[in-house]
Amino acid sequence: MVFINVVLRNAKKLDVKYKFLDSIQIQVKGGKGGAGCPKYGGIGGNGGNVSLKVNDGVRLSDVLRQFPRKIVSAENGKDSKKHCIAGPRGKDKIVQIPPGVTVCEGNRRLGDLNKVGSSMLVARGGAGGRLETGYSATAAECFDLTLDLKLIADVGLVGFPNAGKSTLLAKLSRARPKIASYPFTTIKPNIGVMEFGDGRQVSVADLPGLIEGAHRNYGMGHRFLRHVERTLLLLLVVDIDGFQLSPQHTARSCLQNILLLNKELELYNADLVYKPCVLVVNKMDKEDSRRTYEEIEDKIHNLAGFNSTVSEEMQSDTVLNFSSVLPISAKHATAEDIDSIKKTIREVIDEHYGPPSLDDEIDLQDRCRRQISEQGQIVV
């Protein structure tokens, strides 16, 4: 337990250092309404509104730079006066945010802002004073909001720590994530872009490794899992020899890890297990790895049957349906091996979603670079 606490504490320190910012809290306040003028029947100006608007060129950190106190206030409406019977309306405040943001007030989800140019009114200004209100202004709205960024990538790499996700990303693209032989080397997202001979591009996100209990926010928990929701395809990566986080934790076999990843995804969001999925059984260069794979191959292809034989703590209500299972060694993969993996990923995406439009292809690199430029590394 001491081991994992130290690792996670260090990860949090690095998190601050590298400014991994995918969630912020702000207070939004509409402008106060202006007072009416009963002597002349004047109407006070309405207070301004606060809105969020998606701009592809901004980051969540830009919001904090613009509003360091985390308070966003619209302009107050002006009072009605003798020489200005109708008080001028207060100016609206528009907060520019990146695409892929979910807006919440407490536990209430207000909506998602994904499309560039889309907007959401989050705090209305107070109405100016008038006859009906005794010339007193009405109160403006004020809310405490959470803005959660969910990265938008075509493929999400999912696995326990040290499964080889970063090594695979480095081979699939020209990204250079940190790679080492200990858990939690990835503590911020990395995005790479796979390129094909015909100009097609597919973005791949390497996200921090899960641990058991991630759905309950253990480890990096929700901070990782929420990014999986927007991917088109899940690429599960498991070590053929299984995984053990520390001597104090239970060692899990390759098959058990597959089921545990399945369960973590399902418990976080049951819809995730219905996403298109490809399984990569990694580190096949290890001694006896081929024999081990042959022993479990049938169970992988009949995961539902194996699921019914394990303890309840590992069972899922719905098991993932793998479109393809790829036994590889990411570390020693040849160019032909990588081309085969890329071809499989592309075929599965196209089978479920169809080929992308030309416009989607043109803006892929810019979209990835802008949304991840501060959160992590992107290399094309």
UniProtKB/TrEMBL annotation:
GO CC entries: mitochondrion
Domain Obg positions: 18-152
Species in which this protein is naturally found: Laodelphax striatellus
Alphabetical list of InterPro entries matching this protein: G_OBG, GTP-bd, GTP1_OBG_dom, GTP1_OBG_dom_sf, OBG_GTPase, P-loop_NTPase
Pfam families recorded: GTP1_OBG, MMR_HSR1
Keywords from the named record: GTP-binding, Nucleotide-binding
Molecular functions per Gene Ontology: GTP binding; GTPase activity
Protein's name according to its UniProt entry: OBG-type G domain-containing protein
OBG-type G domain location: 153-342
Source superkingdom: Eukaryota
GO terms classed as biological process: ribosome biogenesis
